Amino acid sequence: MKRIGSIMLLMALTSCGNEPPVSLDRIKATYAEGDLRGITMEDPRWKAAVETPITLAKQLIALPKSENDGVTEIRIKALYNESWTAFLLTWDDPTPDHLARIGKYSDSIAIQFPGVPGDLPDSAMGGAPGSARPVVIHQWKAVWQEAEAGNIEGIRTFYPNTWSDIYIFEMAKDDTARAVMERTFTTSVAAENPLAHHGTAVRDLESVGFGSVEFAAEQTSAGYGQWENGQWRVIISRPIARDRGALDTSRLFYAAFAVWDGSRLEVGARKMQSSWFPIQFVKKPDGAGAQRPHGSH
Amino acid sequence: MAKVFNWQINRETDYWYTGVRPQRQFGAIFDINKCIACQTCTVACKTTWTGGRGQEYMFWNNVESKPFGCYPIMWDVRILDMLGAGAWNGATYAGRTIFESAPVRQRVLGWQPSDFDYAHPNIGEDEVNRPIEGGAYFTGKHAAWMFYLARICNHCTYPACLAACPRGAIYKRKEDGIVLVNQKHCRGYQECVKACPYKKVFYNAVEGVSQKCIACYPAIERREQPQCFMACIGKIRMQGWINPPERIVEDNPLDYLVHIRKVALPLFPQLGLEPNVYYIPPVHVSDAFLTQMFGPGARKAVETYLQARKDKTLAGIFTLLGSTPHTVSFFKIEGDEAVGFDDDRNETCRVPISEPVVTRDAFDEILQVGRHNIT
After folding, report:
1. Residue B110 domain boundaries
2. What's the pTM?
């Protein structure tokens, strides 16, 4: 714990003085046999997991910044085994924002890990451009989930009472004219913007400093979210091994978290975030996993 | 913030990036006095570029009636209200720009429109500035006024959209100064939508990215004018290149109209973006309104324009508006004709400054019929 305290102090000194306070509580990842990639919220294995609340604070380093606080606390459960780890993230949000539209933003949550072994990067997306170190991010967005489910078809998704004499995108999907229009006018698809391909609800990103986040070539994470009774519950699962951002379950590891509340106009750098938070992979009864003090990643 | 020089307000101003002017700058002249709001430009743009899903509400080109028309709703009033009053000391703007007024947590002073704000593109259409009293009649000068304002992206020298994008996904092309949203890197944060005071960047909710007027750059690269220019039946537009005052080229029609004759003016120069669409102000509108909209040179521009008929050079350039599909890089007055040239000074059009008038007899002796139209 003394070593962790030193790391926390170092992080506090090196992060522009604007980092949120860091809890010395650990997230305890519980060992769980079987498939974690497709784990559901109803899975009984979550009952064995310890829930840890962590505090979030406004991102205050990079412009633009939020005017007001968003979600200030999330509760985290974690499971892991030799091949996968899964996080169940819960937070209060009375207004679910499933879609992003003009002037409206989607709810979202992300987990960030160090991208390469060695010293911890700055928890703010890896740090300031130029001196930043890589981080890996697994982000869930409500709007991505809607897209994955095929719920963002077009204008009626946003304005159900739209009326038009002829609307080419409501012609048969195999209609030649429609195909031409879609190919011609969907510029983000032509430009190969990963957003336009309507992938999965959880996506892997990489960043080396503010403003540099990009979709990773390696897309492996999974998960989904569910809003009920004023609360979002989101599962994000990912493989332990990764070309970049591999986890070492034999020692304390670190993760940072961020939440965007669409109703509070949070998007991009306008977000609530944590600093690095220690994750302890609690060893299974036969000794797998370890709790060695953190040395270097 | 860096310091850059904005010649339209005649002083240094704050900007998010250091000022590097492009090799040349896309520019345009719009003669407001000739616009009839037929919206042919709007339709030309719409059918060319914004026929996709999520683009239904977008008008990269629109024509609104001033003083009350606005798309999105109150785009100009809102930013002017946020900016507050700012005086001009002669040609120098003494107020604050949207960059100098940026709130502490933002890069640019701006506001976020909602979808409702785009729902009435023709609001205020043809409405005049004041009620017409009963019994009013025309006495040679109208008691009320309105005019049509055609708008595209201004491809500003200091674009607010570009300054506001936290991802650097908006860029200004060095070869022509056209401002584009990188459709691969945009993540749809809408910071550009919020920052652009002219509200000429739009969010596509289906694609999840922002999109804007691209000045028809494929046409520009072929030395042709954009679609909205080509389609303009009122011939109010001309596309060319605008230089900063220290690099004026006298036979560049934009430099001549903007810098030398000062008859074409930028839209809301006090915002600080150095917009590059230049308007010839309407001749029948109050000075106060024109000064707010086009800066302190508005009255003089109107006076110059009203004398253009007697000025062969001015009249000649005006005849080139809408007379050629080609970018007008240079011009020349030869006798009673105005001639347009491309970048290599190849002639691209030749237009009579005054239409020749032919008078025919009222009765055709050959056909033995009377004529209704003899000129």
Report:
1. 2-130+143-280
2. 0.91
